[in-house]
Structure formats: C-alpha cells, structure tokens
Amino acid sequence: MATTRRDLLGSFAGIAFVGCGLIGEARSQAPRQRREVVVNGRRIRTVDIHAHCAVPEAMALMGRKVTPEALVVSQDRIAAMDAQGIDLEALSINPYWYNAERDLAQQIIKLQNDRLAEICAEQPDRFVAFGTVALQYPDLAAEQLETAMKKLGLRGTLIGGSVNGEELSDAKFHPFWAKAEELGAVIFIHPQGTAELAPRLKGNGVLTNVIGNPLETTIALSHLIFEGTLDRFPGLKICAAHGGGYLPSYAARSDAGCATFPDRCTIALKKEPTEYLKQLYYDSLVFTPEGLRHLIAEVGASQIVMGTDYPYPWTKTAVDHILATPGLSDDERAALLGDTAAHLLGIHG
Hints:
Layout (H helix, E strand, L loop, with lengths): L4 H5 L7 E2 L18 E3 L2 E3 L2 E6 L3 H5 L10 E2 L1 H11 L3 E5 L9 H21 L4 E3 L8 H13 L5 E4 L2 E2 L2 E2 L6 H10 L2 E4 L8 H4 L5 H4 L1 H15 L2 H4 L4 E4 L11 H9 L12 H5 L3 E3 L5 H11 L4 E2 L12 H7 L5 H16 L4
Parallel strand pairs: 4-6, 6-7, 8-11, 11-12, 12-13, 13-14
Antiparallel strand pairs: 1-5, 2-3, 9-10
Helix pairs in contact: 5-6
C-alpha cells in the first residue's frame, strides 16, 4: 500500500507540529497517563494559548519545505500534552507569507485555515485554533478573519509584531483592527524578530531570538498605545507573546516619557500609557516565578494566560511554573492555568 503525503507527515488533516530539531520527548514512548491538574481540590481545565504548528502543503506554495524528520506526529503531541498537564491547546502558525502576492496569499491562508478547522473538528476536546490572515493586505485580512471565525469556528488570529517593516498601528491597518473589534476576535501578537537589528544581534547567544523577539513585541505594543490605536478600538482583545516582551518590566518609563518630553507626544491619549497594559493579555512565558510575580503586579493576574511555546522545550513545565509561583490565590492560579483563556477564547463545557 502506497504511503500518502499525510501519512508521511504524520499529522491530523495536514497539520504538522514542527519540531525544529528541538523536541522529541514524547516520540516512541509508551502511552502515558493523562496528568490532571488540581488546585485546592478543584480539577482545572488547563489551556495553552501559545502552541505552534504548520501546514506543510501551504508552506510548499512559497517554496518552503518541512522534512519528515522535523515533524512531531500528532499522537506524540497529545502524549506530550497529557504528560505536561495540558488539556487544551490553541494552535497557531507564525506568519511567513507577508511578502506573498495577493492571489498566492489567499491560497495559503485558505489552505491553512481549512486545515486548522479540520483538526479542531477532529479533536474538539484538545484543540482550538487561531486562524491566519494576509495582513499585508488589510482589507483581505479583515475578510479572512471574518471567514475564519464565522464559517470555520476559529477563535481569532496570530499576527506578527510588524508587517514588512510597517507598524501595526499604521492607519492602513485600521480596517483590520475594526473588524477584529467587531468580531470579538482574539489577536495573538507573536514576534518575528527585529530584522533591522540583525547586524548587532549576530554572534553567540542566539540574540536574534532572546533579545530580538521580545524587543519587537515591546515596540509593537508601544506603538499601539502611543499612536492611539487602543483608543480608536477600545474593545480589542490583544494577547502578547512572551509576557509582552520588555514593556511590562519597564512600563513606568512610558508614563514619564511624555511628561518629560511633551513636545515629542503630539497624540493625546485618553489615559496614562501604563493603564493600557491592564486591558491587554499576556502569556506566562517569563521563565521564573519572580518574573511571573512581577508581570502580575504590573498588569494583574486576570490578564495572564498560560503559554508553552511548543515545540520549544524550554517551557514544557509551564503548568508547574504557575503552580510553583508563590503568593497567588487559588482563584488566581486557576485563572492563569486555564479559566481566563477559556473565557477569552469562548471555550465552553
């Protein structure tokens, strides 16, 4: 019997969990018992809002290849979720199509969103998904977001921290933000790196990732605040990856900036910059209990959701990170582990 493309990829409905050579802990292991997370006697449905996947068929349209060796098969992903105590995962795809022509971008987005909807339909108790949009064409992105949510049951979309060098706060993106607000979509902002700084970030230490990624998120959120985007669209549901980058760690300087340099702040905001941080959401990917405690102090426990950044192995203990952070009430711990994400994503039952 011939091996099909989907057999080779080892994925539900054409979805691949890209391992990037970084993960394999669940592969070829005996089935594990599903870990159940309990807080003060209450069984918590845990929700991971930050989990990457790919659609190799769509990537091939842009000449990108994912080799079978780089894939984590779907049964292994569920086994890893069971071992880590992750009940449900919000799948998302990092944008690689922002330089695609309009017709090609339409093909890529339709294929990806259809595949995401299929895996969610096949495993509704384990997966929901953020759709994909061609944000380089804001009018098209607005249409794609509406189709993804109203016809395919997806929960919003993942977007990069910038689009071909243009800030998300640029007026050209207002049609997209207006549609996202209208639909109540969750917009997950995930950085794609800070390409402009590549010469300074080269060398040892993978600085393009450890500095470049959180820096892009910091820049993106700051522009959304200072350019008035969050005033124009106050109902937006934005979740920032990696704990919001550096912004929550040094937020007070944003307040001090306009007070110190009023001639540099020509757009009047409705409130202090730090107040906007409390209307955004953030994943818990800050690595240490003290980092999580500080993030909570700056934005509030109600604004934080669990993120693993799967398949990167550095966060396979995301559940334990939250359980081990001191000073949280039972309700706050439950909120971070899954209650807030379930409400945000419209997960019922």
